[in-house]
Design a protein that fits this description.
CATH class of the largest domain: Alpha Beta
Largest sheet: 9 strands, mixed
Number of domains: 2
CATH architecture of the largest domain: Alpha-Beta Barrel
Number of helices: 7
CATH superfamily of the largest domain: D-amino Acid Aminotransferase, subunit A, domain 2
CATH topology of the largest domain: D-amino Acid Aminotransferase, Chain A, domain 2
Strand content: 25-35%
Length: 304
Amino acid sequence: MQEVGKIWMNGKLVPFKDAKVHVLTHALHYSTSIFEGIRCYDTPNGSAIFRLPEHVDRFFKSAKLYSMKMQFSKQVISDAIAKTVKTSGLKEAYIRPLAYYGYGTMGLTPTGNKVDVSISCWEWKMGESKAGKFSGAKCKVSSWIKIDSRSQPMQAKAASNYANAALARMEALDNGYDEAIMLNSRGKIAEGSAENIFIVKDDIIQTPPLSAGGLEGITRDSVIQIIEENGGVVVERDLERDDLYTADEIFMTGTAAEVKSVSYVDKVKIGNGNIGNITKALQKSFNDVVMGKDERFLPWLTFI
């Protein structure tokens, strides 16, 4: 990672190399942290953060679900995100706000410790999200079951949730795939390791309901609104593993992934194995939105 600009920590901008935490920070031992992933795009009208208020709202919702007493307001965090990006000098960036129970008391109960907040950003490189943009990603249905709300709050974007996802992702990569698809405890499709999932069958776009265990993705919501604004419909229903194999198209959505195509699931070819027409059109539509080319969605952009 190239160290550019500074990192915002508890109200101060500090150099990248000085943004450190104590080895006894509670979150390192007990995974008591929540975060967001946000994108800033280099649009023709200047750098713009995509759906900043929605991300900050979810950040605070996650904190509430983990009984975190935030020492900063939503407005302060929003301003700090913009300030961090400006300081970096980057026109495009991936932004990572993080709130965590910090150093103080050790032991399982975190609430005696202060909640620290940091905001980092770095140059965005396509990396692992490349698969699915120019050719379809190859996905494996994971042997790891998606944790659900009986275990912990699934609508919190919490670090602890992603230990489960990381196991699925590593298993997929070790077996020669690009990404994992996770089932819930009822055997229904939940989501990818870090993306929501959609299928297209007979021109009908379908996605699992949030009750299936997936995160309430902001890109998921964006894509659904784009589809509906363009006259389409998205059906939310429980999806079986069979629905994946027989789909005409599959695509995934996420802040990092944006809209990415799936060409194979468990070595079963999806459609003709190429990016489908509906997926391709959605990729273009989404790109137009984040680049400020679709005036209907300009309110989603916060120009800095």
